[in-house]
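Continuing from yesterday's entry. The apo prediction looked reasonable, so today I'm repeating it with S-adenosylmethionine included to see how the binding region is handled. Same sequence as before; SMILES copied from the compound registry.
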Amino acid sequence: MATKSGITATTGTVTSAGSGTEGAAVAKALDERAGADHARWEFRDRKTLLYALVGNDFGPEPETRLDEIREYKKNESKFLLDALKPNACDRVIDLGSGFGFIARVVAPLVERVWCLDISSEFLECAKEELRGFANVEFQQMDFADLRFLAGKGITKGYANAVFIHFNFFDITLYLRQLFEILEPGGLFVFGMSDTDTLDITSDRYFGVVLEKYKENRRSPVLMHWNSAKAACRAAEAVGFRAKNACSGGGSAMILLEKPEKEVALGQAPAEELTSAFCQWRNTTAALINQARNLCIRYPKDRDARYALAESLRGAGMDDLAIGEYQALLQDCPGNERQRAEQGWRNARRIEVIFRRFLRSGFRPRNMRRDTTRKCGAHTLGGKSNEGGKLFAWCGK
Ligand SMILES: C[S@@+](CC[C@H](N)C(=O)[O-])C[C@H]1O[C@@H](n2cnc3c(N)ncnc32)[C@H](O)[C@@H]1O
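Holo prediction written out below.
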């Protein structure tokens, strides 16, 4: 069976492949069918379509083993269902639905399924396979064009054994389209062939596909390997949260989530801001504690007191920093005066600017996009609030 390292959802056809002489026969059938249009995954007859779907895994007459193929696809769909957890309100796309074997499992669980395919022949097969299902729609699509789904309220989707045929440009184009049509909070999962975990000497498919590639480098039905890490980064650049949900043996399953609130282009995602803020707060809090302890243990050490004053200032607690500098100035040796006054002035300047902000009607809110709320910091207004000032200035 076309199962790689237990990540069945990421496999499927090695179109034009399979191994040994049987594999070669399948390859020939796929290549030589008169009138076939590989760019659109049209192969003229059902047997060849099935070859394109499952390779040689079900022998030379896959059309006689449909029940086994259905069962096999049902097993594959478990990975997708686990990742998507579909419910009765979900409106789901099956991108590259093939014979509709997976949509058959998903349709009873959700409100509506759109079977989308670049191939009219595959769509006809899916229509036949799913004729008993009232909540399934069928749509032939152009390459990387999902605009017709805009406004349809798509909450989830999957592509099984489809992205394994994409190069990195294709992946990027589809990611962009998916981001456009998914509802905020929407999920999409896809399997891909993954160079990050690929061993070219032992991989079951790689060598076979390599030979086919030598014969026809432009065949759109060949498998393509891409880096799962790079795919996740591309998805994140598009706006998704991306997770490599499962990987190994040259395959990966990527789960995408469209954030609830879209982050405007050029703005940092709220989670990243929150994480940066928390890290800053923890670091500054640790510094302050360390300096305080030093001052307690060595009350006469003025450098320890400067360290405390500076860490308070760095944490945005300028009112406390001012107090520390004032204390340092009280018994200040002449050669140190400049240092203490400079510190005091810096802290005071920030404090004055802050007060001016407040007087001019600036109402400090939590950090941009509620990031402080998430990490538990509070709004400004009170004093010495763990450096909220710095971030509050970002607010408008
Ligand atoms: C290997 S089959 C997988 C079918 C199905 N997802 C399954 O797992 O049984 C690949 C399917 O993706 C479709 N396909 C290939 N390229 C596509 C594209 N760029 N856009 C949409 N569908 C595509 C093919 O027509 C075919 O139905």
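Comparison notes:
- The CA atoms of residues 179 and 214 lie 35 Å apart.
- Residues 270-392 form one domain.
Will overlay with the apo model tomorrow.
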